[in-house]
Amino acid sequence: MIYKSETELLNNDAIEEKNGEIIIKDEKIFREKTINNLVDTIILSEDAHLRRLCFWVSHACAKKLGTVLSSIQGLYEAMGRKEVTGFTVPAMNIRTLTFNLVRAVYQAANKINAGAFIFEIAKSEIGYTDQRPLEYSSIILLAAMKEGYTGPVFIQGDHFQVKATNYIKDSEAEVNPLKELIAEAIDSGFYNIDIDSSTLVDLDKTTLDEQQQLNYKVCSLFTKHIRELQPQGIEVSVGGEIGEVGGKNSNPEELKAFMDGYKKEIGSLKGISKISIQTGTSHGGVVLPDGTIAKVSIDFETLTNLSDIARVEHNMAGAVQHGASTLPSEAFHRFSEVGCAEIHLATQFQNMAYDYLPLPLKEKIYAWLHKECAGEKKPDWTDDQFIYKTRKKALGPFKKEIHSLSHDVKEKIASALEEEFSFLFDKLNIKNTKEAVDKYVKIVKVDKLKEDFLKEEKDLGVLEGAD
User: Fold this and answer.
1) Per-residue pLDDT tens for 159-190?
2) Which domains, and CATH codes, for the chain?
3) Using one digit for the tens of pLDDT, what is the confidence trace for 270-290?
4) Counting CB atoms within 10 angstroms of each CB, which of 60, 274, 282, 386 has the fewest?
């Protein structure tokens, strides 16, 4: 059900507004009915004011029920000290049916007492999935409350990326919109931000310092910006990157050059908690002419060595693996064994959701892609390759139609994804990590007023970057 008025939204059987505060009158009705209505209104309503009120209600109720947006910094510092080991934190990009799939994540996590997992969305995904940060965090909180999850909830800005060609042309014009996006994300409860300035690495330069110089300078610039914006009591977990995903594999010398320069730039400020490296993967996998994905060989030796160096020499949690969701199933148990701190997973979840979409809707989406994205098709691509590469672009334009699918269809998709999440959580060994999260992660409830949620979002234009 979509709320039609402010009165209907703020004064009903489950909640009411009193003196600018949301009171939960009946928690059972709130979980069973109101949460679903809030989600429907956020996704389907054309009333921007009502949608923003839903954001406020979602965040206010989450704080009251103990579901708190948090930074994973404390846990990552403990991993850097080797006080907790043996698992790899999955960072999951949820591009479609966010409420249903996040519920599936919590269902899988609750079964094994898992707490060390992150929801994330890349800069480009925010654009093509039509999920601004405040909507994304609100839906995630609603899903967590629906499943009775309490404690820290980690949301991450993934690949907040500088595009090299734009930066070289006009650095301020490239940096300033990303600063605004970071501010919007932190204000929305993204207390984990991955800065990707690895696009600025220039391997044609003579020395390693020269190759990494723009990378570490820009990463430090954004680190300083984040530290200025982070709420009192919260140390945002910041990630850096030394090797662009899909490019040359990283090595210890590059890590040293980056960290030496980065530490000089940030001075006494808290630095990055992890480092993303390249080990042989690419975003979305390499799609073959028949639409299947080519097998990829991960350089686990590089992942092991750089994770060790990150912990021992720089007190970080370890190295981060990107572009991993389309890897073969038998590869996933290796990540926790080699000390990989975090692994980013996205495309396979989208692929599985598409597998279960009704054929008429898929045909409609694919026809739209052939019309709207025709210019993206490379001469040597087959139709299967084109569809695979571009279908993520339809998730925003078709968001309402996908959300409006029948309950049975959405349940089938969520059930399949819950099995996938359970498999990944088992292989990444995050069982019982809720205890470590509760021990090391500081809970800080950031005070925000109703008025804070009613501000209109800035139009940041087209968001580009890796995903």
Assistant:
1) 999 999 999 999 999 999 999 999 999 999 99
2) 6-65 (no CATH), 70-355+405-441 (3.20.20.70), 358-394 (no CATH)
3) 999 999 998 765 444 444 465
4) 282
H and E: helices and strands count for the chain? 21, 11
Which residue, 135, 127, 189, 188, is CA-closest to 159?
127
- Pairing relation of β-strands 67-70 and 118-122? unpaired
For residue 148, with 0-12 CB atoms within 10 Å meaning exposed, 13-18 middle and 19 or more buried, which class applies? exposed
Q: Which two tokens stand for residue 161?
A: 């990326």
DSSP letters spanning 67-85: EEEE-SHHHHHHHHTTSS-
Q: Which of 455, 467, 465 is nearest to 165 (CA)?
A: 465
Work out the widest C-alpha separation in the chain, in whole angstroms: 68
Beta strand 67-70 pairing with 319-321: unpaired
Which residue in the block uniquely carries the two structure tokens 């019309």?
371
Cβ–Cβ under 8 Å, residues 65 and 145: yes
